């Protein structure tokens, strides 16, 4: 059995309150609708993986705290070098994740601005 994060389970169990959408009628609208459905699916999957990642990521601060306490117990330089290497790898991973999230956030904000402009144009 897969252990899902509590927030994911809560959203999964709650019925969706989505409003019924009008089906497009023109050929162009159908093509846009199909593309939109495909991209929304991609976003939904990324949300699932992000939730799974965050559930694991929440363990990191406690692990780092425990590692910090272990530093005082080190007696060999080689062990300290291994620990340093692992911490540097983790830091690089976190920096890369942060950059990716900032990039995604900017792309979403740009797309929302474009969407809002289009909505005003369509009114």
From TrEMBL:
Domain of life where this protein originates: Bacteria
Renumbered residue ranges of the record's region Disordered: 1-27
Start-end of Basic and acidic residues biased regions: 7-27
Sections of the chain in a coiled coil: 94-121
Keyword terms of this UniProt record: Coiled coil
UniProt protein name: Uncharacterized protein
Organism expressing this protein natively: Hippea maritima (strain ATCC 700847 / DSM 10411 / MH2)
């Amino acid at each position: 059995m897969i252990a899902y994060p509590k927030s994911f389970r809560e959203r999964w169990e709650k019925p969706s309150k989505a409003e019924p959408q009008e089906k497009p009628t023109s050929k162009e609208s159908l093509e846009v609708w199909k593309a939109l459905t495909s991209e929304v699916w991609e976003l939904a999957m990324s949300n699932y993986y992000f939730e799974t990642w965050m559930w694991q990521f929440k363990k990191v601060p406690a692990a780092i705290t425990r590692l910090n306490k272990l530093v005082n117990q080190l007696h060999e330089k080689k062990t300290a070098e291994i620990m340093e290497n692992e911490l540097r790898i983790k830091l690089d991973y976190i920096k890369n994740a942060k950059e990716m999230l900032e990039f995604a956030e900017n792309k979403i904000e740009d797309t929302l601005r474009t969407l809002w402009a289009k909505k005003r144009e369509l009114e």
